[in-house]
Structure formats: structure tokens, C-alpha cells
Design a protein that fits this description.
Blueprint: E1 4-10, H1 14-25, E2 31-33, E3 47-48, E4 58-59, H2 60-73, E5 77-79, E6 85-87, E7 93-97, E8 100-109, E9 113-115, H3 121-125, E10 131-132, H4 135-138, E11 146-150, H5 154-163, E12 169-173, H6 183-191, E13 195-198, E14 201-207, E15 216-221, E16 227-231, E17 234-237, E18 241-243, E19 274-276, H7 288-311
Parallel strand pairs: 1-2, 1-8, 2-5, 8-19, 10-17, 11-12, 11-17, 12-13
Antiparallel strand pairs: 3-4, 6-7, 7-8, 9-18, 14-15, 15-16
Helix pairs in contact: 1-2, 1-7, 5-6
This protein binds NADP nicotinamide-adenine-dinucleotide phosphate (NAP).
């Protein structure tokens, strides 16, 4: 059996690196298994203007490098590969990267969530160059410009309504006639005179790859198959997010959408010694700053757990859970 570490952090985004920073400064010598494509969702954004402490903005990838470097400075170690399996059924916990086994007394899961993509090559080529997955982050770059938002859910309506504060025109493109969005959100978007709707249509291609920035989209009517081009400077795909929790679903408590459930006010999962931070357990706020905040919480929770465990070697494997609390209403409004 190899070395048993005090703490392994799975995931290299704002939550994972912040947890690593705090844990490293707490002398826990954390190992961060950060993923092959480390950095998380900020690696596909350009300017970040809403992270406190960067008054002139910062590029997403540069910010993630700073986060990583800061954790490294205090002794965090990194494995730039993807975790392929975990076993939280006994202690020490086991985390695998293919055949390599890593052991730890505590684990923080910070694998984040991924915005669903349309699946177009041109979309990938223009990410951060007009293609975005986050209106809160990028809307202000589209002041007095035309933008397209794809989708028909609550996220779509929310993003379109937010974008309309900046853009001159927002066109919602939805693949069906009926909307999945709640009536109140749909009505709000419909009442906004800057928002137009194109239904029964999909984006076949994002235009502008040659120019290096979005210049338009080619749309296709799904009934007639007729195609046409719509000039635009921005394409927001607002078709939902998926938490990156496939590896954990059979071991950690999760909600119907796959988000890990943490005990309210903490980062504790249903397994004592396993914590969750960032977007993997938050489908409401989904911001770098909130992810970083919960990464800090997870490191402090892990530190306290490890300190207490030394005095309680026979602690039960499963943490006692309080009665589930109802979702706050504000999360759904
Ligand atoms: P969602 O409800 O799953 O909606 C996704 C939308 O994107 C659907 O309209 C879907 O079309 C469309 N879509 C999916 N894949 C597509 C593709 N490849 N091409 C084109 N369109 C595609 O996701 P969400 O809007 O992110 O909402 C997730 C949950 O969070 C929901 O429970 C929602 O109520 C909640 N939420 C609440 C609020 C709020 O209350 N403030 C805000 C955001 C989200 P189809 O309808 O045809 O499947």
C-alpha cells in the first residue's frame, strides 16, 4: 500500500485550487488531481471582469494559472490527469488515475460542472471570441450589439433578459415550438421589446472562424430544412449545465440532476471525510468567486475533520445527517 496522504483534492478549477491553497497553508500537503484539461470553465472564457481584486479584468486562463501557482507556492502538489475511479467505501479513501492508486484520509471533490455545448466545430473555434456560455460573465462585452441565445429553458430566458440590458437586440433561437421555461420567465422575456424569438430552428454553424470572431450564425428550420444566415456578434448557448459527477453517483448523495448534496452551511457529503465544493454541488450561483469561497470552506472543514479524527479513531463512516431542508424558494424564482 502506498503513502496515505491527509488530503486529496479532485478537480482543478477555482474551488479545487482555493481548497489547495488553504489546505497547503494548513500543512496538509494536499495532492490536487486536477484533470488533464485543468482550469475548469474559466479556460473557455476570455476577460473576467467580475472577480474581485482584478480592477482591470483578467483573462480566465491567466487567472487559473495564478490560482494554481498560489497553491503551489505553499506546497500543493499536482497530478495533471483525470481521475478514473474512486472508492470511498473504506478508509483510507482510494482515488485512481487508471492503474495508479492514491490514498487519503480526506477527499475534497471539486470537479465542477460543464456547460452543455451545441457540438459544432465552429462553436469550439470561437469560444471566448463571441461564443459564450455565461451571460453574467460576458454580457457587458455586447453593449449595443446584436446577440443570439440558444435554448428554451429557464436559463435561456434568464440569460436573454440579462443580455437585453446591454445588447441592442437579443434573438432567442429554440428548436421547438413549446418552451421548457417556466411561464413567468418566458412571459418576462416575451414582454421585453429587445428580445425576439425564432422557434423550430437550430444553429447549424457559427460564422466567423476565418475572421477569428463571431460574425453570424447559420440557422436551419427543423421542419422545412430551409437555412438562412443571421448576422450577430455573439452566440450564447444557454442549454443547461451538467455536473461532473459520473464517478461519484454510486457513492455520494446527489440530487435528481446529479449535483452532489452537501449538508447546509457546510461542504460535508454523506460520507464523513469526503467534502464537495464549487459547481459540483451548486447549480444556483455558479460563479468563480462562489466556487472559490466554497473551496475555502471545504479546506477548513477537512482540516477540522482531520484534527478531530485523530482523537476519534472509531468515528462512524457515515456522517449523521439532519432532516433534509426544503430548497429555498429564491432558488426557483
Ligand atoms: P433545461 O431546463 O434543461 O433547458 C435546456 C434548454 O436547452 C431546453 O429548452 C432544451 O430544449 C434546450 N437544449 C438542450 N440541448 C440543446 C441542443 N443541443 N440544441 C438546442 N437546444 C438544446 O436547463 P436550464 O434552463 O439550465 O435549467 C436547469 C434547471 O435549473 C431547471 O430546473 C430550471 O428551472 C432551473 N433554473 C431556474 C432558474 C430560475 O428560476 N431563476 C434559472 C435557470 C435555471 P428542449 O426543451 O427541446 O429539450
Amino acid at each position: 500500500m502506498g503513502e496515505v496522504r491527509e488530503l486529496i483534492i479532485i478537480g482543478g478549477g477555482p474551488a479545487g485550487y482555493t481548497a489547495a491553497l488553504y489546505a497547503a497553508r494548513g500543512d496538509l500537503r494536499p495532492l490536487v488531481i486536477e484533470g488533464f484539461q485543468w482550469g475548469g470553465q474559466l479556460m473557455i472564457t476570455s476577460d473576467v471582469e467580475n472577480y474581485p481584486g482584478y480592477p482591470d479584468g483578467v483573462m480566465g486562463p491567466a487567472m487559473m494559472q495564478d490560482f494554481r501557482r498560489q497553491a503551489e507556492r505553499f506546497g500543493a502538489e499536482f497530478v495533471s490527469d483525470d481521475v478514473t475511479r474512486v472508492d470511498f467505501s473504506e478508509r483510507p479513501f482510494k482515488v485512481y488515475v487508471e492503474d495508479d492508486e492514491y490514498l487519503a484520509d480526506a477527499v475534497i471533490v471539486a470537479t465542477g460542472a460543464s456547460a452543455r455545448q451545441l457540438g459544432l466545430e465552429s462553436e469550439v473555434a470561437l469560444q471566448g471570441r463571441g461564443v459564450s456560455y455565461c451571460a453574467t460573465c460576458d454580457a457587458s462585452f455586447f453593449r449595443d450589439k446584436d446577440v443570439v441565445v440558444v435554448g428554451g429553458g429557464d436559463s435561456t430566458m434568464e440569460e436573454a433578459t440579462f443580455l437585453a440590458k446591454f445588447a441592442s437586440k437579443v434573438t432567442i433561437v429554440h428548436r421547438r415550438e413549446d418552451f421548457r421555461a417556466s411561464q413567468i420567465m418566458l412571459n418576462r422575456a416575451r414582454a421585453n421589446e429587445k428580445i425576439e424569438f425564432v422557434t423550430n430552428a437550430v444553429v447549424d454553424e457559427v460564422l466567423g472562424v476565418e475572421e477569428g470572431k463571431v460574425t453570424g450564425v447559420r440557422l436551419r428550420d427543423v421542419r422545412s430544412q430551409e437555412t438562412w444566415e443571421l448576422p450577430t456578434t455573439g452566440l450564447f448557448a444557454a442549454i443547461g449545465h451538467d455536473p461532473n459527477t459520473k464517478l461519484f453517483l454510486d457513492q455520494l448523495e446527489h440530487d435528481a440532476a446529479g449535483y452532489l448534496v452537501t449538508r447546509p452551511g457546510t461542504t460535508e457529503t454523506n460520507i464523513l471525510g469526503v467534502f464537495a465544493a464549487g459547481d459540483v454541488q451548486d447549480h444556483v450561483y455558479r460563479q468563480a468567486v462562489t466556487a472559490a469561497g466554497s473551496g475555502c470552506m471545504a479546506a477548513l472543514d477537512a482540516e477540522r475533520y482531520l484534527a478531530a479524527r485523530e482523537g476519534h479513531p472509531h468515528a462512524a463512516l457515515t456522517a449523521p445527517r439532519p432532516e433534509a431542508e426544503p430548497e429555498p424558494e429564491t432558488a426557483q424564482v
